[in-house]
Each structure stands twice: as structure tokens, then as C-alpha cells.
Amino acid sequence: MYRIFKTVFEHYLASQMSPDILHLRHDHFQVIELNDFAKLVNIGEIEELEIGDVLFEQGEAHPFVRVVIEGELDVLRDGVLTYSLEDGNFISESGMHAGLMLPGSVEASGTVIATRASSTTGKIRCIKWERADLVKLLQKCKPLSRSFQSVLSWDVVSKLKSQRLLLAEGAINSPGRWTGKRMDQSYFRYLAILHNIIARKRDLHANKEELQMYRTIHHIDDEHHKQALETCGWTTEEFDTGKEGISNLDNDDDWSTNKNLQEKLLHFLNLA
User: Fold this and answer.
1) Would you state the pLDDT for residue 249?
2) To which H or E segment does residue 69 belong?
3) What pLDDT was estimated at residue 15?
4) How far apart (Å, rounded) are the C-alpha atoms in residues 68 and 238?
5) How many C-beta neighbours within 10 Å does residue 176 have?
């Protein structure tokens, strides 16, 4: 009886969230139960930005994960616009859609700047989480981690569509240079993920399946994988054995992955 009352009461409290946050859930987080969505919101912080505000610079160690509530932000690699972010898009999720749970800071593969306010409210706002706090919640609540991963996977598709839209609208002056910067960004994003795992002395064997899924989704070939490892001071042989530079610490709880959704995501990207 206590558990039933607790669940009903939590649902009531969750339903009292502000209309704009409930609207965000309706549009982008419907696969997450209302009570679980409230848990996400409660460990985060609402962040209001001004046009021109820089969330972080390329190469900066960044300990936060964000999702855009309203407004738009631009992502730049070496000063070149690579894509834009709008409501429901995540910032610096660093492989969570592939099942990677990386606590601490991850080096930014691009600079993110607040550029356009919402036409409805005149605001630019995000929910900001400490990466470590978000990982801890997802490890604790398995149903939430699975549904959250689903949201992140579709966010990857949304970002891909937005990149195509930039091309279609003629917002890209030099498609060849733009494509090159996108490829650079993809590589350095993967490098940052590897560096986080190695620098924090996490067990590679606990992340190999997720890393391989990430490589498949984002087309990280063997040569770029080898190059990234060498930048981190590893060889592919050491990576395969998981022995060099990483102590065999107790594994974190496995993070359940939504295989079916990942297969759909891969199918979509392979059609791109």
C-alpha cells in the first residue's frame, strides 16, 4: 500500500512541473514515464542564456550534459558552422546513445554558442546536468536508462536531419569544407570518449561493446580508431587485450542497451 501511495504521490508532483517543461516532455521525452522524467529534471538545473553566450569552447574539458528547452544554438568546428541545435537536442552527451556512461569531463569537439531566441518566449534555455549525477541516476534506475537511451538515439537522427536542412537552405557556403569539419568533429568526439575512459582508468572490457556500437553508428573506421588510440598513447594490440594503462577495477553496473532501437538507428544512418 505504501508503494502504491508513493507512486501516485510522485506522479501528482511530477504533473505539477511547469508547462514549458511538460511541453518538452510531450514533444521529445514521451517514451520516459512522467515520474522518471521528473527525476531527470530534479537533478538538473534550468539555465537561461543570452544571444552570443558561449557554453564551452572547442577543446575545453566539459563536465555537463544539456538538452535545449527553447531557442537555438550553433555548433562550430574551427570556426565553421557544422550544425544547429534546437528544442529537444542534447549537447555533449558523449556516446550515451550507444550505451557509454562516462562520468567526469569530456573534451568538447566544437564550440557551442547561443544564437537565436525562441520566437514565442524570446528566451534561450537548457536543462544542464552534471555528467556524474546523470550517470549515477541512470545506473540506479534501469527503466529510465533504457528509455533515456531511446530519446538520445532519436536525437542523433534529428541532428542528422538538421545538417541536411542546412545544406538544403544554402546556409553552407563551402560544402566540401563543411563536410571536412564534420568529419574532424566526429573523429575528435571519438578521441575524447577514448581519452575519458583511459584517463579515468576504467576497464576497457566493460566498454568494448558500446565503443564498437559507437564506431558503427558514426563510421569510425579502423584507421581512425588506430589514430585515436595512438594519440592516447595506446596501440591497437594493447586496446584488444585491455592491459596497458588501465587497472582492472571493479566494473560499474552494466548499462542495459536498447538493441532494437540501435539497429533501427543504424539502418537509418546507412540509408543516409
Assistant:
1) 34
2) strand 64-70
3) 73
4) 39
5) 8
For residue 230, the number of C-alpha atoms closer than 13 Å in the C-beta half-sphere is: 6
Cell of 164: 541536411
Q: What is the amino acid identity at position 55?
A: L
Residue 232 has what DSSP assignment?
A: T
Taking only Cα atoms into account, the Rg of the chain, rounded to an integer number of angstroms, comes to: 19
34: burial class by Cβ within 10 Å (0-12, 13-18, 19+)? Answer: middle
pLDDT for 197 equals 87
CA distance 64 to 72: 18
**CB burial readout 185-220, b (16+ within 10 A) else e:** bbbbbbbbbbbbbbeeebbbebbeebbebbbebbeb
**Which grid cell sits at 235?**
596501440
Cell digits of residue 56 = 564551452
Q: Distance between CA 200 and CA 207 in Å, rounded? A: 13
How far does Cα 208 stand from its chain's mean position?
Answer: 18
Residue that is written with C-alpha cell 569531463 in the block: 105
pTM of the model: 0.84
Q: How confident is the chain (272 residues) per 10-residue block, as mean pLDDT?
A: 54 76 95 95 96 97 96 97 96 94 93 96 97 96 95 94 87 92 95 88 75 93 95 88 51 42 52 48
Contacts of 107 (CB under 8 A, 6+ apart): 59, 60, 61, 62, 188, 191, 192, 195, 196
Nearest CA to 195 out of 227, 165, 223 is that of 227
For residues 247 and 249, what is the distance between their CA atoms, to the nearest angstrom? Answer: 6
